[in-house]
Design a protein that fits this description.
- The chain is of the alpha/beta class and 654 residues long.
- The protein has 20 helices and 30 strands.
- An eight-stranded mixed β-sheet has the order 12-11-8-6-7-14-15-23, sandwiched between helices.
- α4 packs parallel to α11.
- The longest helix has 17 residues.
- The protein is globular, with a radius of gyration of 24 Å.
- The structure holds 5'-O-[(S)-butoxy(hydroxy)phosphoryl]adenosine.
- 5'-O-[(S)-butoxy(hydroxy)phosphoryl]adenosine binds next to α11, β24 and β25.
- The site of 5'-O-[(S)-butoxy(hydroxy)phosphoryl]adenosine has 24 residues, from α11, β24 and β25.
Length: 654
Amino acid sequence: MTETHTGVPSSYPPSPEFAAQSNATAALYDEAEADRLAFWAKQAQRLSWATPFTEVLDWSEAPFAKWFVGGKINVAYNCVDRHVEAGNGDRVAIHWEGEPVGDARDITYAELKDEVCRAANTLTELGLTAGDRVAIYMPMVPEAIVAMLACARLGVLHSVVFAGFSASALRARIDDAKAKVVITTDGQFRRGKAVSLKAGVDEAIEGLGEDSPVEHVLVVRRTEIDVPWTEGRDLWWHETVAKADTEHTPKAFDSEHPLFLLYTSGTTGKPKGIIHTTGGYLTQASYTHHYVFDIKPESDVFWCTADIGWVTGHTYIVYGPLSNGVTQVVYEGTPASPDEHRHFQVIEKYGVTIYYTAPTLIRTFMKWGRELAFEHDLSSLRLLGSVGEPINPEAWRWYRLVFGGDRTPVVDTWWQTETGAIMISPLPGVSDAKPGSAMRALPGISAKVVDDDGNELGIGAEHGEQATGYLVLDKPWPAMLRGIWGDPERYQDTYWSRFADKGWYFAGDGARYGSDGETWVLGRIDDVMNISGHRISTAEVESALVGHTGVAEAAVVGATDDQTGQAICAFVILKAHHAETEPDKLVDDLRAEVSKEISPIAKPREIHIVPELPKTRSGKIMRRLLRDVAEGRELGDTSTLVDPSVFEAIRASK
Ligand code: WT7
């Protein structure tokens, strides 16, 4: 290992033991390099196609890609039926662990197949056909995964809305996708308490009034709390799905048939419905899961701690693991319920071998202290993964040492909702890993760090001053988004206009190269914040704030935070008649407003009432300067400000 001046290794090569058994070898890079499209054709063959494809990629209408042209495939068949047909029906697909201790359930692949068929039959009875949209607003219960797979089986697009989102956020997503059915639960457990969820669905639908596209609401009983009920529209899962037939013949869909929509924050207040399609998405989900996590379906117990409300849950709880036929843990609750031992207990209980989580949680564990981990037997772990934001080297080392006994590889995986699956990551068993770097693009993937004009940056020095640039994806990839629901123009503008002449996708992240040509992703350089790995746009929060009657104007920035990566800091100007209101009360009201409009995760850490906002002569708010203020730094260049003195007042408000 190469050591840094502080005596800790700066790079971790794979152990010979791990390398000897790893799925990936260095030859994978060579193979992809030699013929990229042939390489992807081979990866697609890991799946079972009803009709073979005739062309790997059609990029003639860029940036609208077609992958595996002419191929027909059923995603649910690939995630469930084929494992049963191969004789693995008795293998546990899901070790489900409820939030209340002792509330657990094992589901085999054979049982999962029956459940998915039942749900598919029920959805068909409700009148859904291929191309329709269903909103799924559920906690981490097995039925949520069943619901997603049932949609996939029917060619119906699911739009999973994180159950932590508000009724108002749900309403906007139902409306944009024109979802005909909403699948939900009566309530969800949150730190030992049952809280309502169905009531939020009703509120969302009511908000749509006459225009509501929702014909039915299918409700899973989870907490047994009381729910409001609309006869005729609302149906219980246990009275419909549970009684449906377990026979259902899957139909194959075109490789480019849309599989799902997933809404994510962009730089405006309106979330984007990211469209993913069938063959390419499943190919890359399955391929990356197999090689990056070195999956051995016969012996591994995989655990991705994400929620199905985010893309990580889609790709590494549902489609990746299930397409590979592995056994996985799905946990319903939060890491601290009933206490901070929970994740360690779950790892111990199921013998988890591969654990995939987010840096913000690793930093939380660090805060709780390593003694906690040392009380548990974590020796089953053989590989660790990280995703969601740049991982600081200290957290990376702590993770490897405390979780991994200083033996396990750690893979830092860079990707996005839009990329659908992992793009940049070390391959365990092949690549050296440097703490804090996602290393290099996977075989078959092409990424570059470039300057303003699209020139590739030079290789950086380890600790010197390195140039930073834009992270771009310069070649199409199978799991790439195919557009934004209902807004092809926004798709072009958002991702393909920055380097339009080159035909590159701009990811929105800044990055640099390290001394060995590896990539260091530095985070978003647009107006998107990353709060505990959750993506929230400054514009969304601003629009929630100005929705309050007292607020005339608002500016929001993400400031560095030790725990959550970034924290939301808001600066608001009050309308004249509100200037008299008790400031503390107003700040409380505003935080509640954001929580109600978006989600509690979007609540600002700080709200400052200011007399003015710093603006350029053209009226643009200078967020860079607000970030300086929020992070307590000396101000950067203020020469383009109309009135530099506004900062005296802003600082006084802090
Ligand atoms: C943004 C995408 C990918 C699933 C979860 C987030 C940041 C993600 C890393 C990483 C540095 C990362 C980027 C990216 N990000 N993973 N390993 N290193 N940054 O998906 O909500 O679409 O957010 O998360 O800024 O653009 P998302």
